[in-house]
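Hi U.,

Before I forget, here's the chain from the pilot set. I'm dumping it here mostly so it's searchable later in email.
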Amino acid sequence: MTNKILNQIKKVFQSQLAIPIIALLILVVFNLIRDPSFFSIGIKTNNLKNTVLSGNLISILNGASELVILSIGMTLITSATKGQDISIGASAAIAGSVFVKILRAGNITAGTMLAAFVFACIVAIIFCLFNGLLISKFNIQPMIASLILYTAGRPIAYWINGGATPNVEGKLLSYIGGFIPHIAIPTPILIVIVFVLLINLLLKKTTLSLFIQSVGINERAAKLNGINPFLMKMIVFVILGVCVTLAGSMNVCRIGLINHETILLDVEMDAILAVAIGGNSLGGGKFKLAGSILGAYIIQALTITLYSMDVPSTAVKAYKAIVIIIIVLAGSPVVKAWVGKLKKKIMEKYAKSAKVESK
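Structure:
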């Protein structure tokens, strides 16, 4: 039994998930040495007199919710198109603006919220499909194609609400962005769990994952095998539209307003980094959603760690950049090849010394 467990651990550390797991372990050990109570979970009463969980661990899981959802979308885009969509923050701003516009048109009820989400989702999917069309039909580089929406998206979001940053208030919104009564776990964490399960079901129970990866690895070969590359790319952009709507709507529910300039600002960079930290190739092809999800939590854990060390908010990005460069370099093919050669040399030396001792 022990050997089986050890073999499983060995397989994990030799897999694509090795880098994110090692990075997460380093962060955990560093925080436990620096402050043994860093990951402790407390219980407190919030403004609505509900008993809820609190602590840095809850803050990490809760704070990374939007990034986890967007990282899933970015992973699929990267796999299918061999590039990245840098307009997901702007798309989320548009979806959030539509969501708020509909909510402010009447009373905020469960039906209104559902209608607002569905309509925002349709609008976001249309904008995402615009990027998809440029990429798949006109063969424009994904980053260049999405640069259009990256530039114009937030002004469009500003225009949707008549050049204002309107507030939205209601118990249902606070439940989505905060806590549901008698449930101690933040609602965004629960939404992420449900969303991840649904995406996994979609990818595992259908051939979609295989087709997306096939298109990303070799589009011509995929076409010869009866796979429609154009359709696969359009599908991943539809999924991305759902992801940006969910992230934008959740963010609106958290803060109770839509600000086109600040909503999920620079989140596209964090999403790309989450994909890279997760061991996924930015050149497309094979992917592991678990790696990207871990990458998102690593980025949030690093942010919370830096804030707990009283690092000024203006300097957090610089520190994050340094750590992320180290993580990305550690997972690069050049470093992996060097580590492999070093390991081979050590094993050869060990084998030689073992032979000498046996003689």
